[in-house]
Design brief:
three-stranded mixed β-sheet; 13% strand; Ribosomal protein S19; Ribosomal_uS19_CS; ribosomal protein; RNA binding; Ribosomal_uS19
Length: 90
């Protein structure tokens, strides 16, 4: 997948761009923009990222800077692998 050009900069939704200046409003804030990049201003904040059904709590650390919010709220449910048992076997 090609990267975004450097002269454009990283994508941050306009809503997140406005609230990242005051950190108090950012604590435990719901974020629907999964495509936005995580900037250094979000470090040490706990946010709720929408996965399509329910918001998922995520603590932003320095290692997550530069990634997208959607990478940390999985949209698919993990199910344990089960073997298909035959009829009558328990």
């Amino acid at each position: 997948m090609p990267r975004r050009s450097i002269w454009k900069g990283s994508f941050v939704d306009a809503f997140l761009f406005r609230i990242k200046k005051n950190r108090e409003s950012l604590m435990s804030r719901k974020i629907w923009s999964r495509r936005s990049s995580i900037s250094p201003e979000f470090v040490d904040c706990s946010v709720l990222i929408y996965n399509g059904k329910t918001p998922v709590r995520c603590k932003i650390t320095e290692g997550k800077v530069g990634h997208k919010f959607g990478e940390f709220a999985f949209t698919r449910r993990r199910r344990p692998y089960r073997t298909n048992r035959g009829k009558g076997k328990k």
